[in-house]
Amino acid sequence: MKEYLESFQILKAAEIEEAVHIAIPKTLKKDDLFSKEGSVSTSIAFVKSGILRTYYHSSSLEEITYCFYFPRSFTSSYSSFITQEKSMDNIQALNDVSLLVIPKHEIDRLEKTSINWMKLLKVMAEQHYINLEKRIFMLQKEKAEVRYQNLLEYNPTLLQEVPLNYIASYLGITQRHLSRIRKGVTN
Questions:
Q1: Relative to the CA of 108, which of 7, 18, 124, 145 has its CA 20 to 30 Å away?
Q2: Is residue 126 part of a domain?
Q3: Residue 65 in contact with residue 52, Cβ under 8 Å?
Q4: Is residue 53 a part of any domain in this protein?
Q5: Mean pLDDT of successive 10-residue segments in the chain (187 residues)?
Q6: Structural domain for 79, as ranges
């Protein structure tokens, strides 16, 4: 987490040390939930190891995967974290996951202690927004084959470490369609 925060070149060394000091280690086993729909998100977590997926339930109660988190990233049910209203999504461990958790009251306190924290949180929120916008554009503009090729090019780890049913859901297609696409890529 220290290296990740340093990479932004916004926080001073003492500010980073304070964040590392207040972070609470937490371990999730495969299929455990970090955040559950219907609950209020009261913390954010830095992923040290493992993979998490964020999903929600459609009106037909189908699980829709819309995000994955890998090591060296922060995760939370962001809308719930910001508004302190009930979450509409779940964050699930796809394997054993090691986290560093920072409670919301500590984030709020840090933000009040230094303008650097405000700057960092703004940059992180902007990055999150940009990533979501890119995802929406990709889902609405591109065919499934292009979305799959994009994953191959920009996130091959995802294809190696995440079950195909979650990848199909993430791409907005059925597993059968994903199988046809994969077969076409290998031929």
A1: 7
A2: no
A3: no
A4: yes
A5: 95 96 97 96 96 93 92 93 95 97 96 94 92 89 91 85 92 91 77
A6: 2-110
Cα–chain center distance at 57:
17
Q: Which positions ≥6 away from 75 have C-beta within 8 Å?
A: 34, 44, 45, 47, 52, 54, 69, 91
**Total count of domains within the chain:** 1
Q: How far apart are CA 171 and CA 138, in angstroms?
A: 9
Domain at 17, CATH number: 2.60.120.10
Query: What gap in Å lies between CA 36 and CA 182, rounded to an integer?
Result: 32
Q: Taking the mean position of all CA atoms in its chain, how far away is CA 7?
A: 18
Q: Are 120 and 10 in contact (CB under 8 A)?
A: yes
User: pTM of the prediction?
Assistant: 0.88
Residue with tokens 């459609």: 58
Residue 80 lies in a domain: yes
Q: Considering the domain boundaries, does residue 39 fall inside one? A: yes
